[in-house]
Fold:
Amino acid sequence: MEFTAEQRERFARNFLLEEIGEEGQKKLMNGSVLVIGAGGLGSPAAFYLTAAGVGHIGIADADVVELSNLQRQILHSTKELGRPKVESAKETLTEFNPDVKITTYQDYITEENILDIIKDYDFVIDATDNFPTKFLINDACVTAKKPFCHGGIFRFSGQLMTYLPEENVPCYRCVFKNPPEKGSIPMGNQVGVLGAVPGVIGSLQAIEAIKFLTGAGELLVGTLVSYDALTNDFRKLKLPKDDSCAVCGKHPTIKIG
Ligand SMILES: [Zn+2]
Structure:
């Protein structure tokens, strides 16, 4: 694969990074990432993956753009109100970098469709805002041996962790066990969030995907990073695999598909 003159100019700053360079850029252009959720986390994640020149990006989201989204969901704009988020996202990203192939899924992710959707991608980003979907993404990615990066936000804080289908790597369920009882923790539109916080976490998720595709640096495998915007604390917590985990343990009871 040869770079066009336009690509050489567009990615000039990537070429200058020895950890990426021309070889890494080719890997990005041959790579694919699925972003599940085109909201607060998915916006910066999809923007930076598109900017980096990842060849194929999938965007899954069933919702339409609402005015109360725009405080953090920077993929969309006021003129897009009422439009499906995946359409708005595709248009914005294509204008940003027309070389990137964008595939959209205007669907809720379910046990029935998830394996079929994730199978076409090298890496998955969990940019959702509810626990049942987060556990479903985890369980499906563990089942399909698909690398993914979990991300979550709450008020002024956020967290992320990357999973790889390798020995002794904890999954999201190893750490968090089960979704909390319905209503026990406020989620989605019931809770406030500072818009730039998902901006930080979603950007870090994009970086995890870029490092995975290029082989640069270290991934947050077995490590949960938590961020507190009020105190500026970034904490790294090493976490073990749980042999009794219901999806990746010795005697799994959960199987998707
Ligand atoms: Zn597990």
